[in-house]
Design a protein that fits this description.
Number of strands: 2
Structural class: alpha+beta
Oligomer: single chain
Number of helices: 3
Radius of gyration: 22 Å
Length: 88
């Protein structure tokens, strides 16, 4: 377990130490959850919701052509490629 003691500023703010931010991929604009427990406060990085990820992808690709791959066909193609590689 890694622990680090930090000082609370005049406005009640605490800086998350760099090693923790780096380990958890917390960057400016990231959200965290504060959870009050008997033993103290737990800070949690929320997990990404799949629908939010797809919304971001859709917005980034807006107006661009997106190729649809049928999941079974894509999987079969991957299996065929792997099989061919083993035969070489």
């Amino acid at each position: 377990m890694i622990r680090e003691e930090m000082k609370i500023g005049r406005k009640g703010q605490v800086v998350i130490p760099k090693m923790f931010r780096k380990a958890m991929s917390i960057v400016p604009g990231s959200k965290v959850i504060f959870e009050l427990r008997e033993e103290g406060i737990l800070i949690i990085k929320p997990t990404l919701k799949t629908e939010k990820v797809f919304e971001k992808i859709a917005k980034a690709k807006a107006g661009k052509t997106v190729e649809y791959l049928h999941p079974h066909e894509a999987y079969e193609g991957e299996l065929e490629e792997r099989f061919e590689e083993t035969r070489r």
